[in-house]
Specification:
mainly beta, 5-stranded antiparallel sheet, 6-stranded mixed sheet, Elongation Factor Tu (Ef-tu), domain 3, SH3 type barrels, 13 strands, 2 domains, 168 residues, 2 helices
Length: 168
């Protein structure tokens, strides 16, 4: 598990003409992204020593060594930044990293399998579990709240959900 990587941010593009970057942090405390440096790409082939310069709307202006021009910064657009799982803080019992939830099987309160978590999404109003419905090609967005998802059991790889009527 110590070699596992978790996406902690993404490079949104360049900022100005001197090689500065726009970075969006996915950390609970957004500034913490800098403390996990060096960050890597998902495959680990590239490493970045990220230094935050100043906050901006929806992220930060940052610098990376060896990026000195707007063109070099633009070439890194959409690059996801990963930190080693071992470098991240331990979470309280009722909080989870998105990567922990992906792939878990989802059951209703009666024990019937509803599918598995394909991804976790957040469009600003709270986390949603994208559940791939068992025996279908469709997915359903399940609100990830205590009322709808009362139980997450990482050890057994399952989630118990009480979805709103008609969702599945």
């Amino acid at each position: 598990m110590s070699d596992e990587k978790i996406c902690v941010g993404v490079i949104s593009g360049s900022y100005g003409v001197n090689g500065e970057l726009r970075v969006k942090s996915f950390c609970a405390v957004p500034e913490d992204i800098e403390t996990y440096s060096p960050l890597t790409t998902e495959d680990g082939k590239r490493s970045f020593a990220l230094a935050l310069v100043r906050p901006m709307k929806n992220g930060f202006v940052a610098r990376i060594a060896d990026v000195a021009t707007k063109e070099q910064a633009d070439a890194l657009r959409a690059t996801q930044l990963f930190a080693r799982r071992a470098d991240l803080p331990t979470l309280p019992d009722d909080e989870y990293y998105y990567s922990d939830l992906t792939g878990l099987e989802v059951f209703d309160t009666g024990g019937t399998s509803l599918g598995y978590v394909k991804s976790v999404q957040n469009h600003g109003a709270g986390d949603l579990l994208e559940v791939h419905v068992a025996g279908a090609t469709a997915t359903v967005l399940l609100p990830f709240t205590m009322a709808v998802v009362p139980t997450v059991d990482l050890a057994s790889g399952r989630i118990v959900a009480d979805p709103p009527e008609g969702l599945f």
